[in-house]
Structures are given as C-alpha cells and as structure tokens.
Design brief:
Number of helices: 2
Shape: rod-shaped
Radius of gyration: 18 Å
Strand content: under 5%
Largest sheet: none
Number of strands: 0
Length: 62
C-alpha cells in the first residue's frame, strides 16, 4: 500500500467534499475515507508491534 498516494487521494477528496463541488455520495465517501484512515492506522500499529516484538526477542536472547 502506497501511503503517499492514499494521503494525496484522501486530501483531494476531502477538499472536493468540503468545497461542495461534489454532488451526492458524500456520506459513502466520508465513510470510505474514515475506513482508509482506520486501515492505515491499523497497519501502522501492526508494524510497530512487529518491530517491538522483534526487538524484545533480540533482548531476551531469542
């Protein structure tokens, strides 16, 4: 997943929704944006947890 591309897309869609140039489907798109943010946050947490578990394994001699 390319975070930079996702971020640019989310910013663009949010700006279009905020300016009112987009007609219809706003609640669905806002839900999609919220879902994308949650997935991104989940992936970040998973990556940090994996890295920490790796470091703990090294410290414990594993």
């Amino acid at each position: 997943m390319d975070i930079q591309t996702l971020t640019v897309w989310i910013r663009g869609r949010y700006a279009a929704l905020k300016s009112g140039k987009d007609s219809g489907q706003t609640s669905a798109e806002l839900a999609l944006i919220a879902g994308a943010l949650l997935v991104g946050a989940g992936l970040l947490v998973l990556a940090i947890r994996t890295k920490l578990m790796e470091k703990i394994g090294i410290i414990n001699g594993g």
